[in-house]
Amino acid sequence: MSETQRGANMRQDMRNHEHFESFDPTGGRKWSIYCQRFVAHCATKNLTKDAEMKAEFIASCSDYMIEWTERQCWMKLANTSLTFADIKEAIENHGKPRWEIRAASKFHGRNQQRKESVHDFVSALRSLARECNFGAAHDRMLRDRIVLGIRCDRTRELLFNLPKDQCTVENVVTIAYNTERVKCQEWGGFGFASVCSFCWSVGTVFYDFIYFCIILIGWSIFILLVILFGIPYALLIELGILG
């Protein structure tokens, strides 16, 4: 064997014994990018079998990464039933359940806002529901949230009394739309939400007016007391009548 060939073999052996850097789940790096680089690293070392890639991954992991990965996989990495594909899937799914819980929390806490139309309310719920991953329960969850979150008590009571075979998300949305349209007509086209907003504004102005009157009367009484009692008392002191 020539010196050149021997040197090439030694360099290849050194590369084969070099391990990839460990992934740090707290470092802000993306697992998807790290995984692509790790797979390419395994390809350069001719590690194509799942068991070989798993062994290389474990060898490259820090102590913290091994413990963290075992928590994601719910088993020891040394378990022969655990494949590298299983490890990849567990790490890729890390954080998804918590994100779905946060999305579901926003969804279940979403109510129709003041001045918000039924159309906008339903659109917002549909957008939130897509992030919750409800699966087969999507329509039922959306229907229930519309009924429970709608502002109009009369509409909600109407939806509560729907027959079971008619209580679909499509019927609920249609009834809510139609009820809102009827209210708009009853209020002369201004819209029920607009009328409520107007009444709220008038009430706020009236409250501010009463508050201003109370403050004005209070200051008037105070000034009157100063005039009646404060000035004579000051004059008596000035004249030396009171020491």
TrEMBL record:
Transmembrane stretches, start-end: 187-203, 209-236
Superkingdom classification of source: Eukaryota
Keyword tags: Membrane, Transmembrane, Transmembrane helix
Keyword Transmembrane annotated: yes
Name of the featured protein: Uncharacterized protein LOC117640253
Designated gene of the protein: LOC117640253
